[in-house]
Structures are given as structure tokens and as C-alpha cells.
Write a structure and sequence with these properties.
elongated, mainly alpha, about 50% helix, 2 helices, single chain, about 70 residues
Amino acid sequence: MAMKDQKVRIEVGYGLERIIKDEISNRIIREKMVSRFKKQEYYEGLSAALKEINQLIKDNKRLIGALPTK
């Protein structure tokens, strides 16, 4: 999150790229973060995003570290 630049992104490492794809990252940013950031609720936005990412990882443990399919 770069507050001065008004930019946010989710960086996903190789071990999680099968779980948190670009479209999922974009949805989390749009639905969980941006709406709260507009109300200056930065902690709430980050917390909501992290909770969703944590749940995705818990629900898809078998995919952690697996190579992405082409």
C-alpha cells in the first residue's frame, strides 16, 4: 500500500500463485480494501484483506507450493 501514491497491490510468491491468482487479488483489493481506504479505515481494509487471504490459504492447503498449470 502506497498511501501518497494512492496505490495498492497484493504480491504473491511462487508458493501461493495457484491459490491467489491475479483476479482474486484484484477482487480482494476492490471489495475489502479500497472501499475502506476511501473512508480512511486503513487498518480495517488491511485486516479484512488479510483475513480473506488467510482463509483462502487454509481452504487450499493442498495447492501450496504446487507448480501452476499452464
